[in-house]
Amino acid sequence: MNATPPTPDTPSAGDWRIDRNRAITLFGPAAHDWPIEIVEETGSTNADLMTRLKALPQKRDALARPIVRVAYLQTAGRGRRGRSWVAQPGDALLFSIGCVLPRPIEGLAGLSLAIGSALVDGLRTLPVTAPGQIALKWPNDVLLEGDKLVGILVETAWSTADATAVVIGIGTNVRGEDTLNAKVEALNAAGGSVAAVPGTTPTALSRAWPNANLTDTLAAELNALEDALQRFGAAGFAPFQARWNACHAYAGREVALYEQGKELMRGKAAGVDERGQLLLDTPNGRETVTTGDVSLRLADGGA
After folding, report:
1. Alpha helix stretches (DSSP H) within 170-277
2. Distance (Å, rounded) from C-alpha 301 to C-alpha 65?
3. Which helix (H) or strand (E) segment is 221 a member of?
4. Is the pLDDT of residue 199 over 80?
5. Percentage of the chain exceeding pLDDT 70
């Protein structure tokens, strides 16, 4: 694809739409070749791509390369456990990747953690202050200074003995932190919950990068994800384990696991194993926790 190179200046705050020319220049060679669709509005980019992947032949070579679908507004966007995703157009980068991974469904353990690890690496390439403050929370979140910056939702369209079609939804809060917090607080109050839980309070990339914009954020994330998907397809989560543990926001801290508001267990976070399972050191010894309908919080209430 031919394009006029953009000026070296970062897009201004008023230019909130994705600059295709700039994005093309910023994309690495492989991500550059991915089909990237940008729409004004849709119900859910995950749902859009799920429909398309389900219509594919269930074969390992059914999709030559990942498909990316970006929407400025999602009217039915959702996160883990069916939570709605709150965002104003231009404030959040909302996209999904549809791909066929050369692994059976049982070989996808840890995929969302591998995606999170790649996103941290991609976001740290941006001109943010204190990039080390971009960290990971098990299993599906990226944090900035202890607050939620990115959410990840992985869904499976179909699986065979040697391949699985997946859709990976990613929502990154880029700007508008105050507006976002006000909306989330209103939703929590309406639902009878008023106390902020560390790790769930939303933040935006502009907190650490005043000129944060959708274009540069998209390019940084896709460039990191291109390599990550290839590595995961070849070897699963094992190559990501050390990196994930190095970026673990709660490493060595006392945490508690909750299910539907009830505490299941607590212990000291000891990282994740080669399958992406959470390791907790408890008074009864080391426990292994698989991803499920549970939430992880700091037991001491700290950020």
Report:
1. 177-190, 214-235, 241-246
2. 43
3. helix 214-235
4. no
5. 83
